[in-house]
Amino acid sequence: MARVTDLASLFPPFGLHVRAGSLELRPLTDDLLVGLGALAERGIHEPDEMPFYFPWSTAPRGELARNTAQYHWRVRSSFGPEAWDLQLGVLVDGELVGCQGLTTHDFLVTRTGETGSWLGQEFQGRGIGTRMRRAICALAFDHLGFAEVTSGAFLDNPASLAVSRKVGYRADGVRRLKRREGELALNQQLVLTPDTFVRDDQPVEVTGAEALRAFIGLDG
Is this entry keyworded Nuclease (predicted)? Predict the structure, then answer.
């Protein structure tokens, strides 16, 4: 058994670090959760919009920051080979700007998972969404053995759909979903494979993937 020397020894996702130029994906340790809650409360989308499957971002001020922290604590506690949700803070030039996730069930059999993300409203429209999606997909394909990565976006969310097109996702059907109370919304399903993945010229550097692979049951 590995010797326990730090938090990453107890929870290997805490040792993961992904860098692509000035953009970083870092584990959401408690110190980053404080900043993430504050970022969410400054706004993610306009009040009449809803980009998420579940309208978590409409919680009142104060409650939203607390809910955000509690969600990430629950994610950590349930992380294991059968099902895991890798949630990473997104930083640009050292500043926290959003969150990038990669969620999967029965990964050792399916080798598939879904990306999900959000950016603080003040950081949108700068190309960060495309960069962070490319970074998480490079991690998935190059270091974690994914055969495909899926995503989804409501048809009234053109910014997210544009990111998916730039990264190389292809359409994979439309789902009819309840979004807010009494509201039907159409959700475009998307799928990306290594051969359709559109990379840019920025290399993606990853550390800590070996311990994560062992933690989720890869490499024996």
Answer: no
CB 179 within 8 A of CB 45: no
Question: DSSP E strands: which ranges in 49-169?
Answer: 83-92, 95-105, 112-119, 148-154
Distances from the Cα of 170 to the Cα of 100, 162, 175, 212, 214, angstroms: 20, 11, 15, 28, 31
Query: How far, in Å, CA of 86 to CA of 104, rounded?
Result: 9
> What is the pTM for the complete model shown?
0.93
pLDDT digits (tens, 9 = 90+) for 116-163: 999 999 999 999 999 999 999 999 999 999 999 999 999 999 999 999
- Say which CATH number the domain at 55 has: 3.40.630.30
Q: Are 92 and 25 in contact (CB under 8 A)?
A: no
Where do the H-state alpha helices sit in 78-203? 107-110, 128-143, 158-167
Instruction: State how many domains the chain has.
Output: 1
